[in-house]
Amino acid sequence: MLYNVVLFVHILGAMVMFAAVGITLTAMISMLYSVKTEGVRNWSALAVKLDGLLPFSVILILLPGLYLVFTSWGWGNSWVELSLALLIIMTIMGPVINLRRLKAILQAASEETNELPSAVLLQKVRDRGLWISVSTMTMLTLAILFLMTVKLGMIGSIVTVVLAIILGPAIASILIGKASAKIFAADSNSASID
């Protein structure tokens, strides 16, 4: 019975982390396509608030996870060790890379006086480092969930992590590129109307 309750809390923590990372990515995509400063301000405020869920989710994942490792799964399982390493890396990436930059976007959007976002604000929204970090964290979260479910050996676990690390920056580039192309097309259309 205790095992099932602890496993439930552990899975709940993974779900909270996945939701926080996924909604943060959604908020960032919405910022990228926002045509008004108010939209950037609202979406960046949501992303900053969601970053606060990550430490809570780490506690929900880590404490029950360690209990499960010591009582049931044991060390020496590649998926356990890699998932723990990824969790620690993501715990650092969130506040060091993402939160600092998301707060800068929120501050810049809050200081904007124009209805349309300035070039400086748009540059902050398109920050490649932020996009790569959030996209990679999203893919790493998927990798952790996959490893927790499938419980692969060393080679399969490493391949899973490498794929997540490759897909993160690739997805970031695609998202930024699509938004830039759409904005460029919209600017061209409005210039031809003038």
Features:
single chain; 194 residues; mainly alpha
Report the average pLDDT across residues.
88
Helix and strand run: HHHHHHH
Shape summary: elongated
- The count of strands amounts to 0
Largest sheet properties: none
Total discrete domains: 1
Number of helices: 7
Structural class: mainly alpha
Flag low-confidence runs. none
Mind telling me the C-alpha Rg? 19 Å
Question: What level of helicity do the residues show?
Answer: over 70%
Alpha carbon gap, first and last residue: 70 Å
Strand content: under 5%
What would you note in describing this structure?
With 194 residues, the protein is mostly helical. The chain has one domain.
Compile the SSE list and pairings.
Blueprint: H1 2-33, H2 37-51, H3 53-73, H4 78-111, H5 119-125, H6 128-150, H7 154-193
